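Human: You know discrete backbone vocabularies at least as well as I do. Show me how you would write down a chain together with its backbone fold. No explanation is needed for now; the record alone will do.

Assistant:
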Amino acid sequence: MSDKNSIFPDFNFPEGELLLINKPYNWTSFDVVGKIRNSLKPLKLKVGHAGTLDPLATGLLIICTGKLTKQIDTFQAEEKEYTGTMVLGATTPSYDLETEVDQEFPLENISAEKIKGNVKLFLGEISQFPPAHSAIKINGERLYEKARRGEEVERRARQVTISEFEITRIELPEIDFRVVCSKGTYIRSLVHDFGTALNNGAFLSKLTRTRSGNFHLKDAYEVMGLVNHIRSGKTQTEPAG
């Protein structure tokens, strides 16, 4: 990734800026928005993100400020690209490392050929259920809030498109992959379903968003580098004129 923390363009946040951020591990997307919004006080600007990343995921997060927040839906609808690692032979309730393993499966009958052959089942338009531990709202409450209380979670299938799905490394129980997909795709669900299709189990252990539309992670800022630059007062933070 290019180091942009010491070389910043001139920003005009009230008029609207699109910021590419490398979301840190264990930060929520809202944490990133909050850091940037707080650094722009007392302007009280609108700041929002286009496409949520789970706390345990890293990578490209698009942040919009000022008048550009009106275009968030447009940026959010763009195709996404991810790289990640799944662990075969086990499942977790959250489909990732947020929760503990609840089932284990033998790997003796799993071969590289079976794994690579399984990929074709997930190319094109597919139906998937969001994880119970997700931020989708049902009747005004996020699913993960119900799941954490141990309540039964109602989930609705959605149609998503997987245009590319590539296995890049197999060292069982770990499998590395790259995915290009449509808006709304849950990579955790893709991994869970991938394990199920092998008559086994799988959960996501690592995920990085590398691209959203024509925007790439290599061009992103480290969040605290950008925040410190804004707080230094070396950028335009008031409307022109």
About this structure: The helical segments are 29-39, 72-76, 112-118, 143-148, 187-197, 223-231. The first helix runs from residue 29 to 39. DSSP finds six helices and 14 strands in the chain.
